[in-house]
Amino acid sequence: MDQQNRPARTRAPSKRITMARARKPAEIREIFERFRTANPEPKGELESVNAFTLLVAVVLSAQATDAGVNKATRKLFALADTPEKMLALGEETVREHIKTIGLYRNKAKNVIALSEKLIAAFGGEVPTTREALESLPGVGRKTANVVLNIAFGEITHAVDTHVFRVSNRLRIAPGKNVLQVELGLEKAIPDEFGRHAHHWLILHGRYTCKALRPECGRCIQSDLCDSPDKRTT
Q: Which UniProt keywords apply (predicted)?
């Protein structure tokens, strides 16, 4: 399992939530109606200018914050926004640009390697299937799902630590691992919400339904939440 798919820093939900039944379809619809009303057009927070820079940004975001990745990639993407330009920069220069990001040495190797493969196998274009994306160095299922969703408009559910936590706490798709949660989300979320669902869940987990101190007092789903992690004060 690669870094993209390992919920290394995910605090596992309690057994009561992980093993609990998923909500009824009407309840899930209500949750996503609320998300849509509050934020009709949610956006990912990683900065990119095209499918290639999005792919690189997501690869770099493993075990790093979006803000930290954006700070590192602004200058990098100004110099290299295609696989050819990235390859021309070379691994040492890429490493220097991203050295503030965790695991930067291995990530620099992956960025150069995936650029090489994009040129050799895909004519320099980012492929549009999960299988092809996952064939690229440093790209796991989560990264592929993000690229398919944001760059190509597909309904996919990229499960990071925030999506994993919120899906369990709200019982949208209870699961013990990221794949269980992803497959549960595919079945549970109505198609009309599918395009934006993972953004709503990420943002909710990042800013409201936090791991250690969830801000339940301002949560738009608070009256629907029966998680043992819920804070009443």
A: 4Fe-4S, DNA damage, DNA repair, DNA-binding, Endonuclease, Glycosidase, Hydrolase, Iron, Iron-sulfur, Lyase, Metal-binding, Nuclease
